[in-house]
Amino acid sequence: MGNNFEMLARWTVWANGLTYDACARLSSDDYFIERACAFGSIHNTLNHLLATDRIWLGRLSGEGHDIPSLDHIVCRDFESLRAERLAEDERLVRIVSTAVHSDPDKDIDYISMDGKPQRKPRQLILAHIFIHHAHHRGQVHALLSQTPVVPPALDITYFPLG
Protein backbone atom coordinates (compact mmCIF):
# COMPACT_ATOMS: atom_id res chain seq x y z
CA MET A 1 0.00 0.00 0.00
CA GLY A 2 2.97 2.32 0.42
CA ASN A 3 3.13 5.31 2.67
CA ASN A 4 -0.14 6.27 4.38
CA PHE A 5 0.17 9.91 3.29
CA GLU A 6 0.55 8.80 -0.33
CA MET A 7 -2.55 6.64 0.05
CA LEU A 8 -4.41 9.60 1.57
CA ALA A 9 -3.37 11.73 -1.40
CA ARG A 10 -4.81 9.16 -3.81
CA TRP A 11 -7.99 8.90 -1.70
CA THR A 12 -8.31 12.69 -1.75
CA VAL A 13 -8.05 12.73 -5.55
CA TRP A 14 -10.66 9.97 -5.78
CA ALA A 15 -13.03 11.70 -3.34
CA ASN A 16 -12.56 15.05 -5.08
CA GLY A 17 -13.46 13.40 -8.38
CA LEU A 18 -16.68 11.95 -6.98
CA THR A 19 -17.55 15.26 -5.34
CA TYR A 20 -17.04 17.23 -8.54
CA ASP A 21 -18.98 14.61 -10.55
CA ALA A 22 -21.92 15.12 -8.16
CA CYS A 23 -21.63 18.91 -8.34
CA ALA A 24 -21.59 18.75 -12.15
CA ARG A 25 -25.15 17.37 -11.98
CA LEU A 26 -26.42 20.40 -10.03
CA SER A 27 -28.27 23.28 -11.60
CA SER A 28 -26.34 26.53 -11.50
CA ASP A 29 -28.83 27.83 -8.93
CA ASP A 30 -28.30 24.86 -6.59
CA TYR A 31 -24.53 25.06 -7.01
CA PHE A 32 -24.12 28.80 -6.37
CA ILE A 33 -27.01 29.48 -3.98
CA GLU A 34 -26.07 31.05 -0.64
CA ARG A 35 -26.31 28.47 2.11
CA ALA A 36 -25.68 28.45 5.85
CA CYS A 37 -22.10 27.17 5.82
CA ALA A 38 -18.61 28.46 6.51
CA PHE A 39 -17.96 29.77 3.00
CA GLY A 40 -21.51 30.53 1.90
CA SER A 41 -22.03 28.08 -0.98
CA ILE A 42 -20.89 24.83 -2.50
CA HIS A 43 -18.81 26.76 -5.03
CA ASN A 44 -17.08 28.88 -2.41
CA THR A 45 -16.32 25.83 -0.24
CA LEU A 46 -14.70 24.04 -3.18
CA ASN A 47 -12.76 27.23 -3.96
CA HIS A 48 -11.54 27.31 -0.36
CA LEU A 49 -10.17 23.77 -0.67
CA LEU A 50 -8.34 24.66 -3.87
CA ALA A 51 -6.94 27.87 -2.36
CA THR A 52 -5.75 26.15 0.80
CA ASP A 53 -4.14 23.34 -1.19
CA ARG A 54 -2.18 25.95 -3.10
CA ILE A 55 -1.12 27.51 0.19
CA TRP A 56 -0.07 24.31 1.95
CA LEU A 57 1.47 22.62 -1.09
CA GLY A 58 3.41 25.80 -1.79
CA ARG A 59 4.73 25.73 1.76
CA LEU A 60 5.63 22.04 1.61
CA SER A 61 7.36 22.30 -1.76
CA GLY A 62 9.05 25.64 -1.12
CA GLU A 63 7.36 27.02 -4.26
CA GLY A 64 5.29 29.52 -2.29
CA HIS A 65 1.80 30.65 -3.26
CA ASP A 66 -0.12 33.69 -4.43
CA ILE A 67 -3.32 33.18 -2.42
CA PRO A 68 -4.14 36.38 -0.49
CA SER A 69 -6.83 35.00 1.84
CA LEU A 70 -8.55 31.79 2.90
CA ASP A 71 -11.78 32.87 1.18
CA HIS A 72 -10.04 33.82 -2.08
CA ILE A 73 -12.08 32.87 -5.12
CA VAL A 74 -9.64 31.12 -7.46
CA CYS A 75 -12.28 30.49 -10.15
CA ARG A 76 -15.68 32.09 -10.62
CA ASP A 77 -17.26 29.22 -12.60
CA PHE A 78 -17.57 25.48 -12.05
CA GLU A 79 -15.77 24.24 -15.18
CA SER A 80 -12.67 26.37 -14.53
CA LEU A 81 -12.65 25.31 -10.89
CA ARG A 82 -12.92 21.66 -11.87
CA ALA A 83 -10.02 21.97 -14.32
CA GLU A 84 -7.88 23.71 -11.69
CA ARG A 85 -8.82 21.04 -9.12
CA LEU A 86 -7.67 18.28 -11.48
CA ALA A 87 -4.31 20.02 -11.96
CA GLU A 88 -3.96 20.66 -8.23
CA ASP A 89 -4.76 17.02 -7.46
CA GLU A 90 -1.88 15.94 -9.71
CA ARG A 91 0.34 18.41 -7.86
CA LEU A 92 -0.93 17.10 -4.51
CA VAL A 93 0.11 13.54 -5.32
CA ARG A 94 3.51 14.67 -6.60
CA ILE A 95 4.36 16.96 -3.68
CA VAL A 96 3.12 14.53 -1.04
CA SER A 97 5.21 11.76 -2.57
CA THR A 98 8.30 13.98 -2.57
CA ALA A 99 7.62 15.10 1.01
CA VAL A 100 7.25 11.60 2.44
CA HIS A 101 10.38 10.33 0.72
CA SER A 102 12.57 13.14 2.00
CA ASP A 103 13.27 13.87 5.67
CA PRO A 104 9.90 13.02 7.32
CA ASP A 105 10.81 14.77 10.57
CA LYS A 106 11.85 18.03 8.95
CA ASP A 107 10.20 21.20 10.23
CA ILE A 108 8.66 23.53 7.65
CA ASP A 109 9.08 27.27 8.13
CA TYR A 110 6.43 29.52 6.60
CA ILE A 111 4.52 32.75 7.07
CA SER A 112 0.90 32.29 8.17
CA MET A 113 -1.93 34.10 6.44
CA ASP A 114 -1.87 36.71 9.23
CA GLY A 115 1.82 37.42 8.53
CA LYS A 116 3.36 35.57 11.48
CA PRO A 117 6.38 33.27 11.10
CA GLN A 118 5.54 29.64 11.83
CA ARG A 119 7.41 26.35 12.12
CA LYS A 120 5.55 23.05 12.02
CA PRO A 121 6.62 19.43 11.51
CA ARG A 122 6.15 18.20 7.93
CA GLN A 123 4.07 15.26 9.16
CA LEU A 124 1.68 17.58 10.99
CA ILE A 125 1.22 19.65 7.83
CA LEU A 126 0.56 16.53 5.78
CA ALA A 127 -2.00 15.30 8.32
CA HIS A 128 -3.65 18.72 8.33
CA ILE A 129 -4.05 18.74 4.54
CA PHE A 130 -6.04 15.50 4.56
CA ILE A 131 -8.08 16.25 7.68
CA HIS A 132 -8.91 19.68 6.26
CA HIS A 133 -10.03 18.11 2.98
CA ALA A 134 -12.23 15.56 4.71
CA HIS A 135 -13.74 18.30 6.87
CA HIS A 136 -14.71 20.60 4.00
CA ARG A 137 -15.69 17.78 1.63
CA GLY A 138 -18.00 16.70 4.45
CA GLN A 139 -19.52 20.18 4.37
CA VAL A 140 -20.03 19.94 0.60
CA HIS A 141 -21.55 16.49 1.14
CA ALA A 142 -24.03 17.96 3.62
CA LEU A 143 -24.82 20.83 1.23
CA LEU A 144 -25.38 18.35 -1.61
CA SER A 145 -27.89 16.54 0.59
CA GLN A 146 -29.97 19.74 0.46
CA THR A 147 -30.23 19.44 -3.34
CA PRO A 148 -31.78 16.92 -5.75
CA VAL A 149 -28.32 15.33 -6.25
CA VAL A 150 -27.51 12.41 -3.97
CA PRO A 151 -24.10 12.94 -2.35
CA PRO A 152 -21.53 10.24 -3.14
CA ALA A 153 -20.13 7.81 -0.57
CA LEU A 154 -16.67 9.20 0.18
CA ASP A 155 -15.58 7.09 3.14
CA ILE A 156 -12.04 5.84 2.78
CA THR A 157 -13.36 2.30 3.26
CA TYR A 158 -14.98 2.63 -0.22
CA PHE A 159 -11.73 3.77 -1.83
CA PRO A 160 -10.32 1.11 -4.16
CA LEU A 161 -6.81 0.47 -2.84
CA GLY A 162 -5.55 -1.42 -5.91
Index terms:
162 residues; 2 strands; single chain; mainly alpha; two-stranded antiparallel sheet; 5 helices; Four Helix Bundle (Hemerythrin (Met), subunit A)
What does this structure look like?
With 162 residues, the protein is mainly α. The chain has one domain (4-148): Four Helix Bundle (Hemerythrin (Met), subunit A) (Up-down Bundle). It has helices at residues 4-24, 28-32, 42-61, 78-101, 122-144, and strands at residues 107-111, 117-121. It has a two-stranded antiparallel sheet. A hairpin with a 5-residue loop joins strand 1 (107-111) and strand 2. Helix 1 packs antiparallel against helix 4 (78-101), helix 1 packs parallel to helix 5 (122-144) and helix 3 (42-61) runs antiparallel to helix 5. The model has no long low-confidence stretch (mean pLDDT 95).
- Give the strand line-up of the largest sheet: 1-2
Q: What is the approximate shape?
A: globular
Number of strands: 2
Q: How far do the termini sit from each other?
A: 8 Å
| CATH class wording | Mainly Alpha
Largest sheet: 2 strands, antiparallel
Low-confidence stretches: none
The CATH homologous superfamily: dinb family like domain
CATH architecture annotation name: Up-down Bundle
Helix proportion: 55-70%
Secondary-structure class: mainly alpha
Output the helix-strand order.
HHHHEEH
CATH fold annotation: Four Helix Bundle (Hemerythrin (Met), subunit A)
Mean pLDDT level = 95
Beta-strand content bin: 5-15%
Radius of gyration: 16 Å
